UniProtKB/TrEMBL annotation:
Organism field: Thermothielavioides terrestris (strain ATCC 38088 / NRRL 8126) (Thielavia terrestris)
GO CC, one annotated term: cytosol
Classification via Pfam families: Oxysterol_BP
Keyword hit for Transmembrane helix: no
A single GO molecular function term of this UniProt record: sterol binding
Protein name (database record): Oxysterol-binding protein
Keyword Transcription regulation annotated: no
Family the entry assigns: Belongs to the OSBP family.
Amino acid sequence: MMGLVSGRRRATSNASSRSSGEATEPLEDDTLVVEPDQGNVLSHIISQLRPGADLSKVVLPTFILEPRSMLERITNFMCHPEMLLPIPTIDDPVQRFVAVVKFYLSGWHIRPPGVKKPLNPILGEIFTCSWEFPDNTRAYYIAEQTSHHPPKSSYFYMVPGHNIRVDGTLKPRSKFLGNSAASMMEGTAILSILNRGKDPVKGERYTLTQPNMYARGILFGKMKYELGDHSYVRCPETGLSADIEFKTKGWVSGTYNAIGGTIKNDRTGEVLYELSGLWSEEMFIKNVKTGHKEMFFNALKSKPSPPICRPLEEQDERESQRLWAKTARAVKKRNHELATEEKTKVEELQREEAAKRANDGVEWRPRLFRRVKGGPGGPEEGEEELEWIINAQMSDGSIPCYRLDVTC
C-alpha cells in the first residue's frame, strides 16, 4: 500500500483508442515531474550509503518526501469504493474472487507528483478518516504505528453497512541497491466479507500481499518509480488464488508499469483467468476457457474518492495530519530548510519519549490496537501475521475509537 512513490503527468493523446489490451509504454514518463533539488541527491546521501544498507537509518532529504504520513497513504487502497462495495452481493464465489482482485489492483495508480517517500510515522502516531457513500453508508479507517524499529503500521477499515472489514499490517524494509532504493513491502492484509463464508463471525477471508517498490536513478540518470515482484490474493475457503507479477523494465526490453498474472483454482490446478496491461493505465482480464478478453480496470478514467478527515483543531496531538502539519506545509512550499527543522522536532520528540520510557522502565503499548490472539485454537487463528489487531469488538457493527474520545 507505500514506500517510495511517484506521480505522473498525462500526455494529451486519447488513451481510450488503445484497446488492444497489450502492455505498451505509459502515456508519459513518471520521471518528468522532478524538482531541481533532486539533482543533489548524490552529494546528500552517498556518504551515508553502502549497497544493501538499511535506508531507515539514513537521513533522507526533505525534497523527496511526500507531505503526509505512511499511515495516511495506506488509504489509497480504499479510495475506489465502487470496486469494493458490490463484492458482498456477488453470489458466485469465482466472480466474487475476481472482484476482490479488481479492487486490489485499483489503488496502485494513486500517487503524488514526483518520486516521493511518505513521512515515517513515529511510535504511537494515529490516523483516522472516513468515507460517505451515496447510499448513506459510511466507511471508517483507523491506523496506528505499533513499532518503530522495525517500522510496523497497523490498520483497520470497515464498512458496517456493506459487511466489509479489512485488518492489515505494513512492515516496509528499505534498502539501498546502488543506483536504486528498494522498499520491501512485508506485511499482509485480511479482507473479510462478513455475510459470506462458513463462519458467521469471521466471514469469508481473503489474504493480500504487496509488490515491492523501487526508486531507480537516485544517484545518476532519471529518477523513476517502479513496482516489482510478485504479490498474491488468496481465499483459503474457496481454494482460489491470484499470482500477480508487477514487472520491472529490463535494460533492453520490456515496458514500465506492466503486470501479468493468473487466477486459478488451487484445488484442481486449473487456471481460470489471465491478467495483463499497465497498473497505471488499462488492465485486462482473459477467460482462459472461452478466450474472451475484456477491460478489467481503467485507471485513466477512474476517479478516486478521497477520505474525509476532521479539521486539525479537532484532531488529537498524536494524529498524523496535526503531528506533521508544519513539516507538510513546508514540504508543499518547497521550503526544505524549514521542513527539515520541523521534521527533526517530531523525530526528537520520539527519541525523548523512548529515553524516558527506558529510564522509567515502562513498556510501550499501542493505544488502539492489541496483540493478535493466534495459534491453534485461538480466537484469531490464521491472523498471526498481523501481530496487532484493533482493540474493540465489532459484532454489533459499531466503530468505537473513531474520534479517539471513546475508550476501547
